[in-house]
Amino acid sequence: MPQNYKTILIAYDHSNAAQIAARKAVEIGRKFNSVFQTIFVMTSRNDKDAPEAQAYIEALEKVQNVSLNFKIHSGSPTQVIVKEQKDTRPDLVVMGSHGMEGFMPQFLGSTAYKVANSCDCPVLIIPEAAKDFNFKNILVPVDSSSETRQKFSYASALANVFGSVVHILGVSKHKDSETQKYVNVYVSQAEDFMKNRGVQYGSSMQLGQPVCSTLIEYAGKMNCGIIFTMTENESAGFMLGPSAMRLVGSSPYPVFCIHNHHVDGVGGGGL
């Protein structure tokens, strides 16, 4: 079944990164005719920012002619965001990753990862450095685990509406024959998946190298706007929890985090 993004939750803290994230969420939402929910989590550190945050979202609504349904909550930011996701069941959460005020002072690392790993829908994390990114090129890393294939439908959904090129990159820190065999199989399935859905794609392999730095370097080389990853273990593959955390914390490009639903049998033939 093709993925859809009919409902989008925006976690907003009025930082520069959050402003970028809100604008990009609207850009995605326009393609899918999405309904939006926007939350500002008020703490003792950022309570004075709430009026300005609301004013910014209201101004964005007027400029973009959309309803973003702004709400103010209080409490632990991570807990509030995750609870809102569980309660409202959005198809996508979008948030900034470089807020130096309010609820995101540590968002370059563990906080962002915890939010993404705790939500059971995708979370798009946008760093402040990615203010000029677009959706023309999307990077989909493929490793030696079956879970890696869960990215395919999410990436193809975005690629179809934005006319993106999906760059399939077979990667692993290992280079043994068993790893190569499985990476080759899943790269081939990714190619078939994109081809069957009319998505432009290219593919390459880079095995036996540090994965996070490889992804960031390759994304820059191919001018990719988004890197896809899993938030949990991709079993014997590269995206173990700490690696995903490092990618979220160090990538200058947006990271599209997908929760592992432990679905068997997903691959090139469809989800």
Gist?
The chain has 271 residues and is of the alpha/beta class. It is built from 8 helices and 10 strands.
Q: Secondary-structure map with pairings?
A:
Elements (H helix, E strand, L loop, with lengths): L6 E5 L4 H17 L2 E8 L7 H15 L5 E5 L2 H12 L3 E5 L13 H9 L4 E4 L10 E6 L8 H12 L2 E8 L4 H20 L3 E8 L3 H11 L4 E5 L10 H10 L4 E4 L13
Parallel strand pairs: 1-2, 1-4, 2-3, 4-5, 6-7, 6-9, 7-8, 9-10
Antiparallel strand pairs: 5-10
Helix pairs in contact: 1-2, 3-4, 7-8
Your description of this structure?
The protein is α/β, with parallel strands linked by helices and 271 residues long. The protein folds into 2 domains: 7-130, HUPs (Rossmann fold, 3-Layer(aba) Sandwich); 137-256, HUPs (Rossmann fold, 3-Layer(aba) Sandwich), CATH 3.40.50.620. Helix content is 39%, strand content 21%. It contains 8 helices and 10 strands. It has helices at 16-32, 50-64, 77-88, 110-118, 151-162, 177-196, 211-221, 241-250; strands spanning 7-11, 35-42, 70-74, 92-96, 123-126, 137-142, 165-172, 200-207, 226-230, 255-258. The chain has a 10-stranded mixed beta sheet with strand order 3-2-1-4-5-10-9-6-7-8, with helices on both faces. Helix 1 (16-32) runs parallel beside helix 2 and helix 7 (211-221) packs parallel to helix 8. It is globular and about 55 Å long. The N and C termini lie close together (6 Å). 49% of the residues are buried. Mean pLDDT is 86; it is low at 99-109, 233-240 and 262-271.
Q: How many whole angstroms does the radius of gyration measure?
A: 18 Å
Mean of the pLDDT scores?
86
Main beta sheet: 10 strands, mixed
DSSP helix fraction = 25-40%
Reading the helices and strands in chain order gives EHEHEHEHEEHEHEHEHE
CATH superfamily of the largest domain: HUPs
Which CATH architecture of the largest domain would you pick? 3-Layer(aba) Sandwich
Low-confidence stretches: 99-109, 233-240, 262-271
As for the CATH topology of the largest domain, it is: Rossmann fold
CATH class of the largest domain: Alpha Beta
Shape: globular
Integer count of domains: 2
Strand content: 15-25%
Beta strands, count:
10
Distance linking N and C termini = 6 Å
Total helical segments: 8
Sheet with the most strands: spatial strand order: 3-2-1-4-5-10-9-6-7-8
